[in-house]
Amino acid sequence: MTNENRRVASATELVDPPQHETPAREPGSGRAALLGAVIGLALLLTGTGAVASMVGAAKGRLTAPAAAAAAQAVAVADDAEAPYCTPAFKQVLQRVLNACGLVGGDQRRGCQPADVKTFASITDDDFNALFTPLKNRGAVLMFDDGQDVLDAPAKKLLDERWLDRKGARYFFVVARASRDGTTDKNRALSHKRANSVLFHLKESFQDPDLDSQVGMLWLGSEFAQLSDAYCEWQTSRPGIKRCTPEAINRSAFASWVDCRL
Amino acid sequence: MRAKHAAMIATIAAVLGLVFAGYSTYDYAQQLDRQVHAVHCSFIPGAPVSSDADNPCKAALFSTYSAIFRATYWGGVPISLFGLGAFAFFVGFAAYLRIGDRRLPKSAYPTFVLLALGPLAVSILMFTISVTHLHALCKLCVGVYSASTVIFLASLVGWRAHAADVGAAGGSRPVGWWTPPLAFAALGASSLLPAIVYVSLLPDYRPMLDKCGKLATTSDPHHGLLKIRTTHPLRAVTLFEDPLCPTCKAFHERLVDEGVFEQLDVTMAMFPLDSECNWMLDRALHPGACVLAKAVICGGNDKARMILEWAYEQQDMLREAGKQGAGPLAAKVTERWGHEIGQCVTGKQVEIQLNQELHFAANNHIPVSTPQMFLGDERICDEDTDLGLRYTMAQLAPEVLRD
Questions:
Q1: Does A114 lie in the same domain as A57?
Q2: pTM (predicted TM-score)
Q3: How many CA atoms does the CB half-sphere of A47 hold within 13 Å?
Q4: Contact assignment for B35 to A70 by CB distance below 8 Å
Q5: Which residues in B lie closer than 8 A to residue A28 (C-beta atoms)?
Q6: Are both B180 and B242 inside the same structural domain?
Q7: What number is the ipTM of this complex?
Q8: Under an 8 A CB cutoff, do A77 and B352 touch?
Q9: In a domain? residue B349
Q10: In angstroms, rounded to a whole number, what is the distance separating the alpha carbons of residues A78 and A135?
Q11: Strand partners, B237
């Protein structure tokens, strides 16, 4: 066979042989099968390699420190923390909780004036100022002279305040007496007023958590007396004709406190 | 059309199917790191991932139909892996048909037709599931369905054209008895290989399943939590749900679809991500969720599930109503559930009960997110509430998995 006669098949002819050629030659079919297998196998191995790479990369990210850090950045449910929860305010309230039986399983409930003076370490005005942000949150429950019985408006207002809990965990009751009468008598009277609030809440709501929620202080007439400016706060007797300093101190201030303590 | 043209079309379709299956597999494998990832959702290969949080491709990916062996492997084995291998095979086989053309044995095209029935049947099945169960068509999936259909149609056309071409040429072809078994074996091996490699490289997720916290207290002294009735309550769980949270809806549907929900002894706490009642947020993520949470609570143990599932079904409509304020939303509740529930929603008592449920969450210091599921007191990680749910249940509570 001469070089002129030797004919090299073009790629097109290999793929698509001319009509006049006999199509029944097995080697042609075998070559096609081989090419098809190579193409398919190459794609399969490439795809499988990519899968291995994807899974490997995911495994790497799974153990990367960045993943753990991101996972920890989620907010956690907790009690409310209002802007008025200043360090000074929380310090006083924390001392109330610790000293007055709410924390630590102490059987004693409530704090008397001597306790408050000791643990608060704060002047009368500064103590009262701490509660100023609670002007709209709480209410002043007023009592008759020398009495410790909650009247109907006081009970209604107390119930409303108790039910308006929102995110607060602690409910504080700060009971007082006016300067009329002796110190001992007023100390006892303010104690009874605080208890009246507590007993009413217990009777009305029978809340199993109540004992761990209500913090009480009774200040008698010897510590942190209120000025008549507090008559402008929400009281159980808004229509009272003469809201004197004596009248506003025959009271118990009750409020939820939106602080984490 | 000549056979070689049909083979060429089949080759191109198989390549496209390979690309779509590849993207689908990539999106699935991304989730193996238990983090949140966007997914591809376009007919255009190479298009960027979709920023839409609720696109149909994501719905399909996180559905119970996207993978098999989900109780054995975390996330299961995605079916796109089998597609990946199968399409690689079909590219090779179609190329063989194109190159071999008239020299092909008689059995080549019939074998191709027979094999092309496989992806076509799977595509028809998955298409039906998408339409009837997911109510959405994911573009990547549609790409795969289309590729499978085109391959099958091209195989039919090619078979007929090939017979005509060979007849016109006047030759006779050998039967090629080896073609069907060899091709079947090759297709089987191709389909399985990526899945085998995938499974062999999966991380061990078992140590991670119980590392997401515990409930400090499961007791509820106020009895404010809801007890949801199920048919076979085998295992106690506590769920924190938000009626307007899309993830809660998907999670609830997943529990039901998996047959898990009916096996659970469900205690439910409403945890609406709405600052109107939830002090733990500074803005409402789901405005109106408080109203609907109250509606669920108003349903009591008997109706709570029905009202919650109604809220999930009508979530889009209710979300829009919620943006208009509590009034329109409460009206929707009244319209559907009557005046008794409607009046209850605006009452004081339900407000107190919802508040107690929120305090239950606060006392347990759970993450501020929904949904959350506690198996006993063990928190199920968020990452295990979707793709890994069945695996997690198989590991931690196998009794709740339906046979």
A1: no
A2: 0.81
A3: 34
A4: yes
A5: 100, 103
A6: no
A7: 0.86
A8: no
A9: yes
A10: 24
A11: B266, B375
